Amino acid sequence: MVQKAKILLVDDRPENLLALEAILSALDQTLVRASSGEEALKALLTDDFAVILLDVQMPGMDGFETAAHIKRRERTRDIPIIFLTAINHGPHHTFRGYAAGAVDYISKPFDPWVLRAKVSVFVELYMKNCQLREQAALLRLQLEGGGGGKAAIGDAKEPAGLLAELSARLAAVEEQAEALSKQLDDESADAAAVATAAHLERKLTGLRRALDALEPGTGNSPSVSSQN
Predict the structure, then answer these.
(1) What is the pLDDT of residues 146-162, one digit of tens each?
(2) Neighbouring residues of 222: CB distance < 8 A, sequence distance ≥ 6
(3) From CA 167, how far away is CA 160, in angstroms rounded?
(4) How do residues 25-81 score in pLDDT, each as one tens digit?
(5) HSE-up of 147 (CA within 13 Å, CB side)?
(6) Cα–Cα distance for residue pair 41/68, rounded to 1 Å
(7) Which residue among 30, 43, 90, 193 is least packed, with the fewest CB closer than 10 Å?
Protein backbone atom coordinates (compact mmCIF):
# COMPACT_ATOMS: atom_id res chain seq x y z
CA MET A 1 0.00 0.00 0.00
CA VAL A 2 1.52 3.34 -1.05
CA GLN A 3 1.73 5.86 1.77
CA LYS A 4 0.74 9.46 1.28
CA ALA A 5 3.45 12.01 0.61
CA LYS A 6 4.11 14.72 3.18
CA ILE A 7 4.09 18.40 2.18
CA LEU A 8 5.67 20.93 4.56
CA LEU A 9 3.93 24.32 4.79
CA VAL A 10 6.03 27.04 6.44
CA ASP A 11 4.49 30.41 7.29
CA ASP A 12 4.33 32.50 10.48
CA ARG A 13 0.72 33.57 9.80
CA PRO A 14 -1.96 30.97 10.71
CA GLU A 15 -4.39 32.37 8.13
CA ASN A 16 -1.85 31.75 5.35
CA LEU A 17 -1.31 28.17 6.50
CA LEU A 18 -5.07 27.66 6.54
CA ALA A 19 -5.34 29.00 2.99
CA LEU A 20 -2.56 26.70 1.77
CA GLU A 21 -4.26 23.71 3.36
CA ALA A 22 -7.53 24.60 1.62
CA ILE A 23 -5.76 24.85 -1.75
CA LEU A 24 -3.77 21.62 -1.41
CA SER A 25 -6.37 19.45 0.33
CA ALA A 26 -7.57 18.21 -3.09
CA LEU A 27 -4.21 16.45 -3.58
CA ASP A 28 -5.13 14.09 -0.70
CA GLN A 29 -1.63 14.11 0.79
CA THR A 30 -0.40 14.74 4.35
CA LEU A 31 0.01 18.47 5.04
CA VAL A 32 2.37 19.41 7.87
CA ARG A 33 2.39 22.93 9.37
CA ALA A 34 5.41 24.88 10.60
CA SER A 35 5.04 28.45 11.91
CA SER A 36 8.74 29.33 11.78
CA GLY A 37 12.00 28.37 10.13
CA GLU A 38 13.16 26.71 13.35
CA GLU A 39 9.99 24.63 13.54
CA ALA A 40 10.42 23.60 9.89
CA LEU A 41 14.00 22.44 10.47
CA LYS A 42 12.84 20.42 13.48
CA ALA A 43 10.15 18.68 11.38
CA LEU A 44 12.73 17.86 8.72
CA LEU A 45 14.87 15.99 11.25
CA THR A 46 12.42 13.10 11.51
CA ASP A 47 10.11 13.12 8.47
CA ASP A 48 10.62 12.88 4.71
CA PHE A 49 8.83 15.46 2.57
CA ALA A 50 7.96 15.57 -1.12
CA VAL A 51 8.08 19.38 -1.34
CA ILE A 52 8.36 22.42 0.94
CA LEU A 53 6.26 25.59 0.55
CA LEU A 54 8.28 28.27 2.31
CA ASP A 55 7.27 31.84 3.12
CA VAL A 56 10.07 34.36 2.54
CA GLN A 57 9.17 36.98 5.16
CA MET A 58 9.16 35.52 8.67
CA PRO A 59 10.37 36.97 11.97
CA GLY A 60 13.65 35.58 13.22
CA MET A 61 14.89 33.07 10.67
CA ASP A 62 13.47 34.15 7.30
CA GLY A 63 12.80 31.93 4.31
CA PHE A 64 16.19 32.44 2.70
CA GLU A 65 18.06 31.47 5.86
CA THR A 66 15.77 28.49 6.42
CA ALA A 67 16.38 27.28 2.86
CA ALA A 68 20.15 27.63 3.34
CA HIS A 69 19.99 25.33 6.39
CA ILE A 70 17.85 22.83 4.48
CA LYS A 71 20.28 22.70 1.56
CA ARG A 72 23.29 22.20 3.86
CA ARG A 73 21.83 19.02 5.35
CA GLU A 74 22.51 15.85 3.41
CA ARG A 75 19.15 14.38 4.42
CA THR A 76 17.12 17.33 3.12
CA ARG A 77 19.19 19.07 0.44
CA ASP A 78 17.32 17.44 -2.46
CA ILE A 79 13.81 18.33 -1.26
CA PRO A 80 12.21 20.83 -3.70
CA ILE A 81 11.48 24.24 -2.17
CA ILE A 82 8.81 26.61 -3.52
CA PHE A 83 9.18 30.14 -2.12
CA LEU A 84 6.02 32.15 -1.47
CA THR A 85 6.31 35.91 -0.97
CA ALA A 86 3.97 38.86 -0.58
CA ILE A 87 6.63 41.31 -1.74
CA ASN A 88 8.45 41.83 -5.00
CA HIS A 89 11.75 43.67 -5.00
CA GLY A 90 12.53 42.89 -8.63
CA PRO A 91 14.88 40.44 -10.35
CA HIS A 92 17.55 40.65 -7.63
CA HIS A 93 15.10 39.46 -4.97
CA THR A 94 13.91 36.63 -7.21
CA PHE A 95 17.49 35.64 -8.01
CA ARG A 96 18.24 35.42 -4.29
CA GLY A 97 15.41 32.91 -3.96
CA TYR A 98 16.76 30.68 -6.71
CA ALA A 99 20.30 31.05 -5.37
CA ALA A 100 19.06 29.78 -2.01
CA GLY A 101 17.99 26.56 -3.71
CA ALA A 102 14.35 27.15 -4.62
CA VAL A 103 12.82 25.37 -7.60
CA ASP A 104 10.18 28.09 -7.92
CA TYR A 105 9.41 31.57 -6.61
CA ILE A 106 5.75 32.60 -6.47
CA SER A 107 4.42 36.04 -5.52
CA LYS A 108 1.22 36.44 -3.52
CA PRO A 109 -1.59 36.56 -4.36
CA PHE A 110 -1.09 33.47 -6.50
CA ASP A 111 -3.42 31.37 -8.63
CA PRO A 112 -4.52 28.39 -6.48
CA TRP A 113 -4.79 26.14 -9.55
CA VAL A 114 -1.23 26.95 -10.63
CA LEU A 115 0.18 26.33 -7.15
CA ARG A 116 -1.68 23.04 -6.82
CA ALA A 117 -0.45 21.90 -10.23
CA LYS A 118 3.16 22.72 -9.40
CA VAL A 119 3.01 20.91 -6.06
CA SER A 120 1.35 17.87 -7.64
CA VAL A 121 4.29 17.45 -10.04
CA PHE A 122 6.78 17.19 -7.17
CA VAL A 123 4.49 14.88 -5.21
CA GLU A 124 4.29 12.56 -8.21
CA LEU A 125 8.07 12.58 -8.65
CA TYR A 126 8.48 11.79 -4.95
CA MET A 127 6.09 8.84 -5.17
CA LYS A 128 7.95 7.45 -8.19
CA ASN A 129 11.23 7.66 -6.30
CA CYS A 130 9.67 5.80 -3.37
CA GLN A 131 8.55 3.01 -5.72
CA LEU A 132 12.03 2.86 -7.22
CA ARG A 133 13.66 2.48 -3.79
CA GLU A 134 11.26 -0.37 -3.02
CA GLN A 135 12.25 -2.19 -6.20
CA ALA A 136 15.95 -1.66 -5.44
CA ALA A 137 15.51 -3.04 -1.92
CA LEU A 138 13.83 -6.19 -3.25
CA LEU A 139 16.63 -6.68 -5.77
CA ARG A 140 19.32 -6.27 -3.11
CA LEU A 141 17.63 -8.94 -0.99
CA GLN A 142 17.67 -11.33 -3.93
CA LEU A 143 21.33 -10.61 -4.70
CA GLU A 144 22.30 -11.20 -1.08
CA GLY A 145 20.63 -14.63 -1.24
CA GLY A 146 20.12 -16.82 1.80
CA GLY A 147 16.97 -17.78 3.64
CA GLY A 148 16.56 -14.38 5.29
CA GLY A 149 16.37 -12.48 2.03
CA LYS A 150 13.92 -14.89 0.44
CA ALA A 151 11.71 -14.95 3.50
CA ALA A 152 11.54 -11.16 3.55
CA ILE A 153 10.31 -11.12 -0.02
CA GLY A 154 7.77 -13.88 0.18
CA ASP A 155 8.80 -17.15 1.86
CA ALA A 156 11.37 -18.67 -0.48
CA LYS A 157 10.05 -17.91 -3.93
CA GLU A 158 11.95 -19.49 -6.78
CA PRO A 159 14.58 -17.11 -8.22
CA ALA A 160 13.05 -17.17 -11.70
CA GLY A 161 9.61 -16.32 -10.33
CA LEU A 162 11.04 -13.56 -8.16
CA LEU A 163 12.89 -12.02 -11.09
CA ALA A 164 9.71 -12.06 -13.16
CA GLU A 165 7.80 -10.34 -10.35
CA LEU A 166 10.49 -7.69 -9.93
CA SER A 167 10.63 -7.12 -13.68
CA ALA A 168 6.86 -6.65 -13.83
CA ARG A 169 6.89 -4.16 -10.95
CA LEU A 170 9.76 -2.25 -12.50
CA ALA A 171 7.95 -2.15 -15.85
CA ALA A 172 4.95 -0.53 -14.17
CA VAL A 173 7.17 2.17 -12.63
CA GLU A 174 8.95 2.70 -15.97
CA GLU A 175 5.62 3.22 -17.70
CA GLN A 176 4.51 5.76 -15.10
CA ALA A 177 7.84 7.61 -15.27
CA GLU A 178 7.60 7.80 -19.07
CA ALA A 179 4.08 9.20 -18.86
CA LEU A 180 5.21 11.76 -16.28
CA SER A 181 8.12 12.89 -18.49
CA LYS A 182 5.75 13.38 -21.42
CA GLN A 183 3.42 15.38 -19.19
CA LEU A 184 6.26 17.63 -18.09
CA ASP A 185 7.28 18.21 -21.70
CA ASP A 186 3.73 19.02 -22.71
CA GLU A 187 3.24 21.49 -19.87
CA SER A 188 6.62 23.23 -20.30
CA ALA A 189 7.38 22.52 -16.67
CA ASP A 190 10.11 24.07 -14.55
CA ALA A 191 13.64 23.04 -15.41
CA ALA A 192 14.11 21.60 -11.92
CA ALA A 193 11.12 19.27 -12.31
CA VAL A 194 12.34 18.11 -15.72
CA ALA A 195 15.81 17.47 -14.30
CA THR A 196 14.35 15.47 -11.40
CA ALA A 197 12.34 13.34 -13.84
CA ALA A 198 15.46 12.71 -15.91
CA HIS A 199 17.33 11.67 -12.76
CA LEU A 200 14.56 9.20 -11.96
CA GLU A 201 14.71 7.72 -15.47
CA ARG A 202 18.47 7.22 -15.14
CA LYS A 203 17.93 5.30 -11.92
CA LEU A 204 15.28 3.16 -13.58
CA THR A 205 17.63 2.40 -16.48
CA GLY A 206 20.35 1.26 -14.08
CA LEU A 207 17.95 -0.98 -12.20
CA ARG A 208 16.63 -2.47 -15.44
CA ARG A 209 20.18 -3.33 -16.52
CA ALA A 210 20.83 -5.02 -13.19
CA LEU A 211 17.66 -7.09 -13.54
CA ASP A 212 18.49 -8.05 -17.13
CA ALA A 213 21.94 -9.19 -16.03
CA LEU A 214 20.35 -11.60 -13.54
CA GLU A 215 18.50 -13.47 -16.28
CA PRO A 216 19.75 -17.06 -16.73
CA GLY A 217 22.58 -17.37 -19.22
CA THR A 218 23.96 -13.87 -18.83
CA GLY A 219 26.80 -14.95 -16.58
CA ASN A 220 26.91 -11.55 -14.88
CA SER A 221 26.73 -10.71 -11.22
CA PRO A 222 25.60 -7.09 -11.06
CA SER A 223 25.89 -4.78 -8.14
CA VAL A 224 23.17 -2.32 -7.30
CA SER A 225 24.40 1.12 -6.40
CA SER A 226 22.58 4.34 -5.62
CA GLN A 227 23.03 6.70 -8.52
CA ASN A 228 22.96 10.39 -7.74
Answers:
(1) 544 444 444 444 556 66
(2) 143, 209, 210, 213, 214
(3) 11
(4) 999 999 999 999 999 999 999 999 999 999 988 998 999 899 999 999 999 998 999
(5) 0
(6) 11
(7) 90
